[in-house]
Amino acid sequence: MIAVDALLRHFQSLTSRQAEVALLLADGLSNTEISGRLNVTVHTVKAHRAEVMRRMGANSFAQLVGQLLQIRLANKPPEIDDSAQIRIVVVEDDAWYRDYLTAALQERQFLVRGVANAAEFDADWAQQPADVVVLDIELGQTDVDGLTLASRLLAMRACGVIMVTRRGEVADRIKGLTIGADAYFAKPVNVDELAVTIVNLCKRLR
Q: In terms of pTM, does the model score above 0.70?
């Protein structure tokens, strides 16, 4: 049996789309259901599934599901002091990943709202500001991307800004940090690491 630490390393080596497929498989969805959820072909889902099994070292689908359940049990949300008082807005155009990240942070006792783009963010912010904005760089076809929105928030000193994006290259991370973002994560993010970063950031800002 592969140790949980090794399983976590294997899982973290997956691409964001491979991780999405793996998590949906663990939830019991079929290839066809995953295809519809992610808006990709069944062939693509099968290809991702095969690569996930290879990287995870799983010899069967049943073993893969067992490994993913092991990871979930080992990755039980930790108790984080004062997190219940921290308000977060997740700005993410991918509906599935937005829901996943929002739910995962809510499990860790944060007060979390999710929006799809800058326009929705502005409307949400007008109703209630937040302590931290977790922000994707690419916001679909909207005119305002994540870097522009981050620059605006940072100029106002309105809140903490954490970038979470598929753009994991060094140049992109430097660009995000150069405009003043407080932290930068490449997808798929480790939610516990993100949660601790949020708590530490809020302690510093307060």
A: no
